[in-house]
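Wed. Picked up where I left off yesterday with DUF1211 domain-containing protein. The coffee machine is broken again, so keeping this brief.
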Amino acid sequence: MGKGRLEAFSDGVLAIIITIMVLEMKVPHDDSMEELVKIGPVFMSYVLSFVYIGIYWNNHHHLMHAAQKISGGAMWANNHLLFWLSLMPFASGWMGENHFTKWPVVVYGVILFMNSISYYILVLCLLKANGKGSTLAKALGSDLKGKISTAIYAVGIAAAFLHTWISLALYAVVAIIWLIPDRRIERTIEQG
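Structure written out below (tokens, as returned):
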């Protein structure tokens, strides 16, 4: 089964998610710095979420590039991932509007956690479709970075019950970890 439509659909959904997030930021009704500062938490939440969507787009692109085949299961796993990613604008907006209080930060963390789990499920489906000896399997290896990220999200969710800034710091750490490009797939394809 070809992967072009899956990639195009995913790119379109991710573009819409980013568009929805930016449209949720309301423009201040006057020109004072005080009004601009008031939307600071919404902007900070947007920046973190934008980075996450960018990370998923980048990794999804590399994943699809390395996969030679997709299956019906992989298509549903991809939709599962897109479902959780599509909740980012809601969680991001709620968190920013409420100045990073406990429950919005918890919900944001749960969505990050589920994004990670659903991405892992997509990877498993693609590995099954492409085989253990595939370029994709060689490139992914044990995916320690992904497993550590998922664990940090879980700790971040629990930390929100102590102090939300600990959670936000942990969520930002994962984003920083993934901003450093993961070159496993590129290297494997170049060597291939």
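Quick read: The chain has a mean pLDDT of 93.
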